[in-house]
Amino acid sequence: MGQKGITVNAICPGFFASESNSPEALEQMNDLIIPKTPMGRIGEEGELDSAVVFLAANESTYVTGAVVTVDGGWTAI
Asked: What pTM did the predictor assign?
């Protein structure tokens, strides 16, 4: 499908605060994730936006089969 201009990519987010997390779950996850994340924090609102915009932009038309990880370095260690 790439020859027809169709690209397939994935964004793999790390832990982000969201409406689906209760304050208790967020606190528990913070205690587990923050110490093991090189950036030392969870993702903040808007930090996935750049990856989404890039993959939707004309500048990424040669990007396909990519996994864009936005996780503060979690998977790097």
From this structure: 0.82
